[in-house]
Amino acid sequence: MTTTADEGFLRRAIELAATADKSGNPPFGSLLAGPDGTVLAEDHNTSVTDNDITAHPELKLARWAAANLTPDVAAGTTMYTSCQPCRMCSGALERSGLGRVVYALSGDQLNALKPGGGFAPVPEDGPALYDEGRAVVENYYKS
């Protein structure tokens, strides 16, 4: 359930999305609020101007949080974003330990606005060679 405070932060994320659009980038913006409601960081999409398909604001803020916040503080934060994070960004958000994400548009709503819908999924095959793959990974997680 969103609050009036959440709506204010979402409006700022939408302003950041407009900034991205004005600079020639896809119109997405995000901010990270601390447990006390202080804005800790904010960013917008720069995937075109940076020539980097991963320059989504959610991913950039997840990286920032992982590098700059303790796990306890990160767990108390809320990310406000103009659109539901994509799968790439969602993975980064999970790993960064943020506490909550609030978004304005869902991924389905976004795709309905795009000519031709969203991106086509890349076919995946697997798992394969489980024992060989496991041998490389399992010692890392035993420590």
UniProtKB/TrEMBL annotation:
<dbReference type="InterPro" id="IPR002125">
    <property type="entry name" value="CMP_dCMP_dom"/>
</dbReference>
<protein>
    <submittedName>
        <fullName>CMP/dCMP deaminase zinc-binding protein</fullName>
    </submittedName>
</protein>
<dbReference type="InterPro" id="IPR016193">
    <property type="entry name" value="Cytidine_deaminase-like"/>
</dbReference>
<dbReference type="GO" id="GO:0003824">
    <property type="term" value="F:catalytic activity"/>
</dbReference>
<dbReference type="Pfam" id="PF00383">
    <property type="entry name" value="dCMP_cyt_deam_1"/>
</dbReference>
<feature type="domain" description="CMP/dCMP-type deaminase">
    <location>
        <begin position="4"/>
        <end position="116"/>
    </location>
</feature>
